Amino acid sequence: MIVIHTAIAIIIMVAMIIWAKVNPVIALVVGALYIGIAGGLGLAGSVTALAEGFGDIMVDVGLLIGFGVLIGALLNQLGALRKTVDLLVQFFGPRRLPYAMALALNAFFPSIYPDVQLVLAAPLARNASSRLGRNGLGLMAGALVVGIPVGVVFVAPGLGAVSIAGLLNVPLSTSLLWGLIVALSSTLLSLLLYAELLRRGWWNTEKDETSDDVLAEPGSAVSETGSGRNPPLGVSMLSVLIPIVFIAGGAIARTFGIENTVLEFLSEPVFALFVGLVYAYVLSRFTAGRKATDFAFGTGLETSGNILLITGLGGSLAAVIKKTELSDVLTGLFSAEAGIGIIAAVVLSWIIAAVLHVAIGSINVAAITAAGIIGPATAGIDAPPVIIGLAISAGAVFAVHFNSNFFWMFSSLLGLTTRGALKSMTLMTAVVSVVALLITILLATVVSFV
């Protein structure tokens, strides 16, 4: 019976978000309370579990998300993304630019909120597309599609990646390393497949692009980048590279059996991201000035509020599930004894996340909700939690379409018709989702033989 009630709760949450246009924060609370009450916890017990789950996930990822968002806001202030694209054009040339740009968005900018990434990158992509020939805009659109959403949900400190790691109890260093592998490989393969489709006539300039010929100049979308005294790109990007080196370096060292208190302290994700944040803040104060820095910092704080609430409520949902019979049902469903192997567990996790995303329209909400539902059962799954996390990430990016505000921002900023957005964003997110699933299955297969 609890499975039926959970399905009802999911339908209620989806209906509230899509049709009633209710904020996901309220929808997640209603869904969690419904499951708790239907599962026999009672009203008081459900509220207690909800509050405890919120606190538990905030202990794990609250500071990580907050620091990541603030770093992203300061990088925006410093004009790092615009300079990155300029450098990529100079270094790789126009022909390789889409691939370089997508991989750069994957690896270095997941801390910047997706909508901000899109606003910054879209004018640059439109300008660069004129150098790529007839299908240039279609190819650059594909690069943004696989660059931004995939990075956010696979690569820490992206919101989706950090949230999934916290809900599945995956060390952030482990999530970062495996997430980068899957994100970069699936992005490159998907973009190569899409480029082949374009060569075969998939893109129709007349029908897929709007008649608007006014292209924004690079950087014109950035309204708060200060006085033009922004530092060199390499100096700005140290705010991202320092945490990555600290976290990944510690994980690699431990793999080779190198452990000591200093290394453990430096590779602690909270400390590593804090160092990156302090560096970005000081750099912005010295270059852009106090007023511009305070504006960027304030913007980051405002953005992080809603993000932290949604993430925390994903933890609340997981805590409620753990205290109901649904936890036992999920554990039994995913356990090896139930006849479901590691591959089936990966595919089922992907399906849950994909269905939630297609219904809800938010990649991050779908990822957090799926991880909250599956998280309580990970102990019974015959697979490392990081593999299940990768499957959830892959499913959460599946087929961005009409119910996503990102879809409409994308079509407007890139100058695409609705048909063009469907042929680029919807198709590409479906393709990269399936490619990432196949790569995750391959990794799961390797793990099962180790």
Automatic annotation (TrEMBL):
Any Pfam family hit: GntP_permease
Record has Glycosyltransferase as a keyword: no
Transmembrane segment boundaries: 7-26, 32-50, 57-79, 99-125, 137-156, 176-195, 233-253, 265-283, 295-321, 333-356, 363-381, 387-414, 426-449
Keyword Transmembrane attributed: yes
Keyword annotations of the record: Membrane, Transmembrane, Transmembrane helix
PANTHER family, sorted: GNT FAMILY GLUCONATE TRANSPORTER, PERMEASE
Record-given protein name: Gluconate permease
